[in-house]
Amino acid sequence: MADDVEITHGGMIAVDPDRLRTTAGRVRAEAGEVACARQDLLAIPGLVDDVPLARGFPALWSAAARLQNVEDALERLAGGVGTMADVYELADLRARQAMLGAGDVAAARDLRRREERLLAGDARLSALDERLQESWRRGVAEGFAPGGEPGSLPGAAGDALLLGLSPALFLLQSVLGWNTRVQAEGAQRLMTSVAAENGVVRPAPLAPAPGLVLMADARSPAGVRPRAGDVVIDRGPAATIPAGPSTLAGAVSRIPFGRSSQVRVETYRMGDGAQRFVAYIDGTRGRSAEEPWSFASNLRMYSEHAEADSYRAVAEALRDAGAGADTPVDLVGYSQGGMIAGLLAQSGEFDVQGVVTVGSPIEPVLPDDVLSVAVRHTDDPVAGLAGGGSPNGTGSPDSLVIRRTVAPGHGTDPQIPAHLLDGYAETVRRAEASGDERMARIAEHFAVLDTATSMTSTDYTARRVTG
C-alpha cells in the first residue's frame, strides 16, 4: 500500500546469517523432540498385552503419522532457513568484494575462499543469490511504473463496461495505457542501469574544481577579488536557538527549503568548551548561471565524482562556522543536499558522526561508527538513482533506511510528486509514529545537543560569479 512505511537497516540482507543459522538449529531441535515423541508412541504397542487397550492402536498410529508429518515439515523449514542464511552470506560476500579497492588483495582472497566453500556445499546458491538480488532490485523501485491501466475505470469490470460503450475508446485507452507503462518501465530500466554505475559511492577523492570559494567579508584573503567562476558566500547573522533537533522530523524541518539560503549551520558549545555542528543542506535550486545548487552540480558530483560549487560552498560554510577535522559534525541534506552530505562524510575533512539524507541520488559507503539515515520513496526517480543503496547496507548498526511509496505509477511524471519535501516530511512523521524502537536511537543521537550551554544558527547563501 502507498501509506506503508518500511524501516530497515538497508540493503538486501534482511537478517544476519548467523542468526538465521541459530534459528535453523532451534527448529531442528524441535524436530528432534517431535521424533522422540513419535518413537515413544510407536513403542506403546509392544508394552500393552491387554486386548481392549489394543483396539486404540489405529488412533495411535494415526497420531504417529501426523507427528511424522510435523517432523518432516520442521526439517524442511530448518533446511530452508539454513539455505537462506547461506544465500544472505553469499550476497554479503559478493557485495563486500565489490567494495574492495585494488590494493585489498588479501581481503579479496579470503572473501573468495569463503564464497567457494559456500558454493561447494550447495550448487544452488549462486542462482538463488541472483533471484534474491533481482527481487531486491524490483522492490527498491516499487511503484515507479504503473501497475495497470490508467483512468477512472480500473479493473475488469470497468474495462468490460468501457468495451460495451465504446470499443474504439477502449482500444485507445488500452494503447495509451500500454504506452505509459512501456515508457515508465523503460525509464525504470535506464534508471537502474545508471544507478548500478553511480548509485553507491565508495570513499575516493573528488576531482577538484576550478575557481575559488570566498566569503563576502574581511575573512577572504586580502587583495583577492572574485573572478568569473568563483563562488562567493554571504553569511547571515547568528541567531540563538532554544534547542537542538530532538527528532528526525525536527532535523528534516530545519533544511532551508524555500529560503534564500542554501545552507544552515548550527553551532553547539558544550559544557567542556568543545563545539559540535549540524549542517542542513537544501536540494537543487534551478538552472541560473549564478546558482551553485544547479543541475550541472548534480551531474558533476553524480556522474563525474567531482567537486561541485555547491559541495565546496557547504565545506566552506562549515569551516567558517569553526568546524574542522576534530569537531563532531552531523549533516542533514535533501536531494542534491543529501548527495553533498554523503560525499562530505567520506572526505575526511570533518569528524562526521551522523548523515541524514532525504531523497538523495546516492548512497555513500560509510564506516561503522557513523549513523546513516536514508529516507527514500520507491517511486521517486531521484532517490531511484541510488539503486536501493549498498546490498549490505552502510554505516553503524543503528543506521536505517526508511521507505514509502507515495505516488504509485508516477515515476516519470515531470512534476516528480514523489520527490517533494513535504511528502518526505510526512514519511518521517509516520516512521516516528510507528513505534519502531530503532527510531528512538536516532532521537538519542541528537539528544546530546540539548546538553549544550549555548546554541546558535547561521544561514549561508552562495552565488557563482558570472562576470
TrEMBL record:
This is Alpha/beta hydrolase family protein. The keyword Hydrolase applies. One of its GO terms (molecular function) is hydrolase activity. Keywords: Hydrolase. The keyword Hydrolase applies.
